Input
Amino acid sequence: MNTMLQKANVYVEKNALNRKELKWYPSYHSAAPVGWINDPNGMCCFDGKYHLFYQYHPYGVTWGPMHWGHVTSTDMVNWKDEAVALAPDMEYDKNGCFSGSAIAHDGKMYLLYTGHVDLKQEKPEDKDRIETQCLAVSEDGINFEKIEKNPVMTLENIDYAFGGHFRDPKVWKHEDMFYTIVGSQKDEVTGQVLLFSSKDMVNWQPVGVMASGEGNQGFMWECPNFAEVDGKDVMVFSPQGVNPEGRRFLNKHQSGFFVGKLNYETGKYEHGKFDMLDYGSDFYAPQIMNTPDGRVVMIGWLDMWDRDYPEQEEGWAGMMTIPRELHIKGDKVVSTPVKEMEILRNEHIEVSSVEVKAEKQFAGMTGTAFELVLEADMANADEFSIKLETLANEEAVLSYDKKIGVLTMDCTNCGTTPKNKREVEIALTDNKLKLDIFVDKSSVEAFINDGERVMSARVYPMKPFNVVFESDGTTVLNNADFYTLNSIY
Ligand code: FRU
Output
């Protein structure tokens, strides 16, 4: 009997929060029943269901020895809590079952994750940790067995990786081989991704370095992910330590992508420039998965490291983004909400062809969990804003400044900390600004011009939002559709 896992499950069951009663707990995003979560893990389809795991410390509202929490869904919208799947109960993962991925194969589900061992006390030379990749297998998609042969990948005999950072494996199948990429360091200041191949997922051969940083691309690449999107090989990853450049890279750590082509013979990956997947203040460690109907879907952690998490006072911390469908447009990865999100739509307020001069409000556009889809014609306006105001004198503002072609998400006056403001450059076609905005208690996700850019942030208002439109000059709201969104809890 696995006592650590059992203990975690008993604890979660006993201490599960009454989510509906909490001011900031999401009503339609995936989050934990109690405690702390970070990265999404192991997103996959198995046995007719979507599975999503997450880095989980059930016993507290701060990061701690990592378990894997687990939810399932038949539509990527309604998530059901499942038993905690992994606990750090082996010598090789005793300080945490770190991030990883999943794959369905031969009627079983395989989790490939990082076993984390902290050596800080002993500290041999340049290694402060031992990280290895480990396999756990499930017949039913709920109960997982760590295999006898763990760990299945180590840094032993690999002389092209620096230090002990070696984590977050992403496994996929190509023809009759399995491939895995793992985040690592080339030297103290350069991140890289290592490629491995295997016929059986137990015996892995190192292939080499699939990609590594150039210039300002961070010292460690976490959470590499990989999938073919619209015929291109896309690598998604989360570099730590990229320095701010103008409006970009302002978060503690970044998450972005390369678009390119992987040569499976040589293991070399030719790719274009690094760009961000989300320009908001709270987005990290995204995972991507292939769906049975041929889509590539991404979910990220709707948070950022090392900031305040006001929801801790409610007994939980951290949440996932809504699932986003990825496509290629030009040399970029664009992301839009999966179409299934529409099933949450409830009350609908629709306006069309309305001029906004100075401020304008529409009856009923108010709430804590809603979606606002709009197209604004700015031919005769310099600036257009959507203000999410509350009766407690708070506001989160999205505004587009046409003169400089910049959209700003300003959360500096919205409730308690963190107070963030982020900007993204985006050009309009025909003076039209398109937005699809999801608000959910303590989060805002804005998809701009069909997902060409996305901005996600956590906000912590004390009262519900009222939507207020504002224009400098005349903005025509060609259409604005406001929907209250149902709760999944
Ligand atoms: C990214 C990360 C991963 C690691 C996990 C630990 O947010 O640092 O690299 O596996 O979190 O919880």
